[in-house]
Write a structure and sequence with these properties.
With 327 residues, the protein is mainly alpha-helical. The protein contains 16 helices and six strands.
């Protein structure tokens, strides 16, 4: 890894905790040459190429469809296992057992151990498999490929965007450092009260349990969050509050599965950032920001694939580090 990429990687971790992306201080010679070539390209020629690409671009929802199918199947497997009493996947997303193997959500396990004020061996065993899984796949892959709230919030986002297009609502942004603050607050509450306060209000846990055991009054809280996101702040819970996302982001720092950006084919039209849940991770696609000709997207990326589906030139793609591009 080049020195500029190493520095960029450190900055990407800071961005995950809420710092704003900054212009790179160091860029590789290869990237400088590509940036300079793009600056020298005739603007009219570039616009013509972009118009041609857009006219012949086929709308793809390949990764979105794969993700929705995976998320729905994973959550319904809990439901069917419970109703049919087949004991394949028991429990809920916070804590479960898959054909006898205990699986415990990392953030939930942390909350419980803070509440009990000691390390619980059974929880450590249950988190082991989950930890390895999300280290390999990328921690925030959980958010977009498994979390049920992510799916309903994604549908609510479509309503928000429709209303915004009609000038009926506007997106109120907040300081992304709030998520780190909330993580500390919920950890502190568990430690101080001996109660897992976050688990009581987690929309992920509420929806998971509702799907399995039936709806309850807690769904009103989830509905209130969705209303807030539709009319006030787009995807507010996932962007500015959810401690699960931060926990899994840290877990996925060294993940081999990632989205990679290639500088030379990019037109910097910004469509990828428009569809991204966490557009700050795509700061590198802004013209002049890429520190190398190929840059892996940072650990706060949810690997949802929306940017890959949207990019008209294939400048964004899934890959396994050290191996190859994923189809």
């Amino acid at each position: 890894m080049s020195a500029p990429l190493k520095r960029r990687f450190g900055e990407q971790i800071k961005v995950m905790f809420g710092w704003e992306p900054t212009k790179p201080e160091a860029i590789t010679e290869q990237a400088k040459q590509v940036h300079e070539l793009k600056r020298m390209t005739n603007k009219q020629d570039l616009l013509a190429v972009k118009a041609h690409m857009r006219a012949h671009q086929e709308k793809s929802n390949k990764w979105r469809n794969r993700r929705w199918a995976t998320l729905i199947v994973a959550n319904l497997l809990f439901t069917f296992s419970f109703f049919l009493d087949i004991q394949i996947l028991e429990g809920a997303l916070t804590a479960s057992r898959f054909v006898g193997f205990h699986l415990i959500d990392l953030n939930s396990a942390l909350q419980v151990m803070l509440a009990h004020k000691h390390i619980i061996n059974n929880l450590l065993i249950g988190t082991g498999t989950v930890l390895v899984l999300w280290v390999l796949l990328g921690g925030r892959t959980f958010c977009s490929w498994v979390c049920p709230y992510h799916l309903v919030a994604e549908w609510a986002e479509k309503i928000h965007l429709y209303l915004a297009e009609k000038k009926l609502v506007s997106d109120q942004t907040m300081d992304r450092r709030l998520r780190s603050v909330f993580w500390i607050v919920f950890a502190g509450l568990a430690l101080a009260t001996g109660y897992t306060v976050y688990e009581a209000i987690s929309p992920t846990g509420i929806l998971s349990r509702a799907l399995i055991y039936g709806p309850g009054l807690a769904l009103l809280w989830v509905f209130a969050l969705l209303v807030f996101e539709v009319f006030f702040s787009r995807r507010a819970w996932c962007r500015y509050a959810c401690p699960i996302g931060l926990t899994y982001g840290v877990v996925g720092i060294i993940s081999p599965v990632r989205i990679k950006y290639k500088l030379d084919g990019c037109f910097h039209e910004g469509d990828c950032r428009k569809v991204c849940l966490v557009p700050h991770v795509l700061d590198t696609v802004i013209k002049g920001r890429a520190v190398d000709t190929e840059v892996p997207i940072g650990p706060d990326c949810t690997r949802c694939g929306l940017c890959v589906d949207t990019c008209p030139t294939g400048s964004l793609s899934f890959e396994v580090k050290g191996l190859s591009k994923i189809a």
